[in-house]
Every structure is written in structure tokens, then in C-alpha cells.
Write a structure and sequence with these properties.
Strands 1, 3, 4, 8 and 9 form a five-stranded antiparallel β-sheet that branches. Helix 3 crosses helix 4. The chain has a single domain, classed as Cyclic Phosphodiesterase, Chain: A. It contains five helices and nine strands; from the N terminus they run E-H-H-E-E-H-E-E-E-H-E-H-E-E. A hairpin with a 6-residue loop joins strand 8 and strand 9. By secondary structure, it is an alpha+beta fold.
Length: 185
């Protein structure tokens, strides 16, 4: 099954992020994520079998109650992979990412060290905590990209207290997520 690990954010933050959509909605061809899908991806696993999912859950259990609630100040709009050819539009933070990075690192170290994952390769560290706002299917003009990246807004304080494992099923209308497991941090 296709899976990913995510930090869940509070509903108030989702509502504030969703309101930014109106400032970006005249830019096409962008497909915005649904509000209920907004999250901070910790790790995208791709296809995992049942045994691997069980090992992920076991590693998640080691994080339970260790960190408490945390906050992330969302204060910038960015894109992947590059502004000259954006495919993903995201909202993220210029600062205070350390705690989320630490939680992710602790999870990955536990998972990689305690399981035999012949197909899993630990990748170099380039993790950027972010929330995907939209996917960009076709090339857009540089001026539109610049307009998106320059969007001015009041910082949004996202409250995070839960790490969850999701299954992602691809459909013509976009991916559908099902929560498989969750732990309070």
C-alpha cells in the first residue's frame, strides 16, 4: 500500500491556510488540496507491504508522549522543485523547524535501525517541513510563480500534537487519504 507519515495540524490553522486560497485562485492551472488533507509530511514511504507498515507503527510507538505539543509558524509560500518549473505550491516556515526535524529524525533512526528494510535507502537530509497547498500540472508563467511566492500574509501558528500514518490511494480526482495509525507526541 502507498503510505506516508504526517504531522497533523489543528483545524483553526487549516481554516486560516484555506483562506489563502482566495489570494491564489486566479492562477491556473493549479489544483488545490482539499482542506481536510492539509498536513505536514514527515516521510513519504511509497509502497509498503504489511510487514513494513507494522514496523512503521512499532517505530511510531517509541515516540508516543516524548515531545508534547509543538507549534510551527507558517510564514512563507514556496514551491518544489524549483521556481522556474513549480509542481507543488506549499506553505512553510522560515524558522522554528528544529523540533519537527528532531521528531522525524528520531522516527527514521528507530525505523531504519530496528528493521531490516532491504529496499529502503536512507536519503541525505534535505527535509523541509511544509504543507502542500496545491499541485501545478502544467507550466506557468514566471510572473505567476513570482506572484505566488511573494504573497504577503500574517503568519499562521500551526499547532501540532499528533503524528499519523496514512494510506494514499490515487484516484483521477486526486489522492484519497485514510488514517492507519496515530500517536500523540
Amino acid at each position: 500500500m502507498r503510505t506516508f507519515l504526517a504531522f497533523e495540524i489543528d483545524e483553526d490553522s487549516k481554516n486560516k491556510i484555506w483562506r489563502l486560497k482566495k489570494d491564489l485562485c486566479d492562477i491556473e492551472p493549479i489544483r488545490f488540496e482539499r482542506k481536510e488533507k492539509l498536513h505536514i509530511t514527515a516521510e513519504f514511504f511509497g509502497e509498503l507491504d504489511r510487514n513494513a507498515v507494522t514496523s512503521v507503527i512499532k517505530a511510531m510507538e517509541t515516540l508516543k508522549g516524548r515531545y508534547g505539543k509543538t507549534e510551527l509558524s507558517l510564514d512563507q509560500i514556496g514551491c518544489f522543485p524549483h521556481p522556474s518549473r513549480p509542481r507543488v505550491l506549499w506553505i512553510g516556515s522560515r524558522k522554528n523547524q528544529e523540533k519537527l526535524k528532531k521528531i522525524r529524525e528520531d522516527f527514521l533512526n528507530t525505523w531504519y535501525n530496528e528493521t531490516i528494510q532491504a529496499k529502503v535507502q536512507k536519503e541525505p537530509e534535505n527535509y523541509v517541513p511544509h504543507i502542500t497547498l496545491a499541485r501545478i500540472k502544467k507550466p506557468i508563467a514566471k510572473e505567476k510563480t513570482d506572484q505566488m511566492l511573494a504573497l504577503s500574509f500574517a503568519p499562521i501558528t500551526a499547532k501540532i500534537e499528533r503524528l499519523s500514518l496514512f494510506e494514499s490511494v490515487l484516484k483521477p480526482t486526486g489522492a484519497e487519504y485514510t488514517k492507519l495509525y496515530s500517536v500523540l507526541l
